[in-house]
Design goal:
- There is one protein chain.
- The protein is of the alpha+beta class.
- The chain has two domains: 5-153 and 318-435, FAD/NAD(P)-binding domain; 161-312, Elongation Factor Tu (Ef-tu), domain 3 (Beta Barrel).
- The chain is built from twelve helices and 17 strands.
- The strands form four sheets. The chain has a six-stranded mixed beta sheet, with helices on one face. Strands 10-11-12-13-9-14 form a six-stranded antiparallel beta sheet.
Length: 436
């Protein structure tokens, strides 16, 4: 049997999905991954589909943009949605996972597939097509330069990750378990602050020393809005955090019976509930400063940090005009891109683009029309945003209902409107045919 052969660069979420989609449909795949030979500044594990910023894959319910995206992916045969379901941890209405188990499951599936050959080596020069480039926003220097030449430029800015602490080091007399508005189980630990504690925390946070960012002009860094360092957000106004990640709405402190002035939420990192992530606390403070300043949060005075927050450069293509809606390079139809390097933002958004890139490069090799989903679907809307954004300042975009065309009828209730948008999306496609 004469099987199509495709190279996939990068075994992150997008690369794993692209390789899986190809192999499941009978193509031979050579998957290149530079770990553990070489690590990016943010990656620590040799496993595939490593989660960096958070262990949450966002909302699970269908009447949410993230939930709709995952359902569309599931209908197209997603590997990673299946892995996530097998290792989910409590997180209220969100799909959060044990990140080590998630990576292990993905790695085992990829390495165990008879049509996927894994090459643990760094690629510094672009191979000839057919190829799917899924090297992410932390593409290594040599290859990044090659991609920049191929595409005529890129968009760079900074991204940040939040710290993780051990559960046993928390003062549970000061924390309480609850989800906002009592939605789902009490899956978050909440560290409440009164006004005096919040004021002191903000003052210390703004005065804390930040770690240097190498190779960039730190006087005016471009910071992506969706993963903004907490100290940068605090600099936008004294109450910016209290109306952002520290908003106390929907929560009541059982010790006082009242809503706190502000609250820091902690989300479990694993099934054993031994590790917790500081939700929304991406940061670039020096490690010692993180321990000092975050130690001012009630309940975290003696917190043991197993991972401090880090900040790193992200590089994205100026995709509109460069990429088609099927994720192929306009000027070279046998070169496809997928993942955050295209300008989709988020774990599942990256994986979704990998699904489409894998499906479509195989369709092209077989002489079939590529799959461009309707703009009424979340995957279709995101692919059109990446390829056809017409504004001046292209920024990465995650799943949200704002990218979908409005419904013909007006529905005042937001939850009902979102469910109607989701149902329209799922009815817009013959998913069984799309998978073929």
């Amino acid at each position: 049997m004469n099987r199509p052969e495709v190279k996939v660069l990068g075994a992150g979420l997008a690369g794993c999905e692209a390789a899986w989609q190809l192999a499941q449909r009978g193509a031979k795949v050579r998957l290149y991954e530079m770990k553990p030979e070489k690590f990016s500044p943010a990656h620590k594990s040799a496993g595939f589909a490593e989660l960096i910023c958070s262990n949450s894959l966002k909302a699970a319910r269908l009447d949410s943009a993230a939930g709709l995206l995952k359902e569309e992916m599931r209908r197209l045969g997603s590997l990673l949605v299946d892995c996530a379901e097998k290792c989910r941890v409590p997180a209220g209405g969100a799909l959060a996972v044990d990140r080590d188990e998630f990576s292990r499951l993905a790695t085992e599936a990829i390495e165990g597939h008879p049509l996927i050959e894994v090459c643990r080596e760094e690629v510094s020069a672009l191979p000839e097509g057919p190829v799917v480039i899924c090297t992410g926003p932390l593409t290594s220097g040599g290859l990044a330069g090659e991609i920049e030449k191929l595409c005529g430029g890129s968009l760079s800015f900074f991204d940040a990750a939040a710290p993780i602490v051990t559960a046993e080091s928390l003062d549970m007399d000061k924390c309480f378990a609850a989800s906002r508005y009592d939605k789902g189980e009490a899956d978050y630990l909440n560290c409440p602050m009164d006004k005096a504690e919040y004021d002191a925390f903000i003052e210390a946070l703004l005065a804390a020393e930040r770690a240097p960012v190498h190779d960039f002009d730190v006087r005016d860094p471009k910071v992506y809005e969706g993963c903004m360092p907490v100290e940068v957000l605090a600099g936008r106004g004294h109450d910016a955090l209290r109306f952002g990640p520290m908003k106390p709405v929907g929560l009541r402190d059982p010790r006082t019976g009242h809503r706190p002035w502000a609250v820091v939420q902690l989300r479990t990192e694993n099934r054993e509930n031994t590790l917790y992530n500081l939700v929304g606390f991406q940061t670039n403070l020096k490690f010692g400063e993180q321990k000092r300043v975050f130690g001012m949060i009630p309940g975290l005075e003696k917190a043991e940090f197993v991972r401090y927050g880090v900040m790193h450069r992200n590089t994205f293509l100026r995709s509109p005009g460069l990429l088609a809606a099927d994720f192929s390079l306009v000027k070279n139809p046998l070169v496809f891109f997928a993942g955050q390097i295209t300008g989709v933002e988020g774990y599942m958004e990256s994986a979704a683009s990998g699904i489409l890139a894998g499906l479509n490069i195989l369709r092209r090799l077989r002489g079939q029309d590529t799959l461009v989903l309707p703009e009424t679907t979340m995957m279709g809307a995101l692919s059109r945003y990446v390829s056809g954004y017409e504004g001046k300042d292209f920024q990465p975009m995650g799943a949200n209902f704002g990218v979908l065309p409005p419904l013909p009828e007006k529905i005042r209730d937001k939850r009902q409107r979102y469910m109607a948008l989701a149902q329209r999306a799922l009815l817009a496609v013959d998913w069984d045919s799309a998978r073929e």
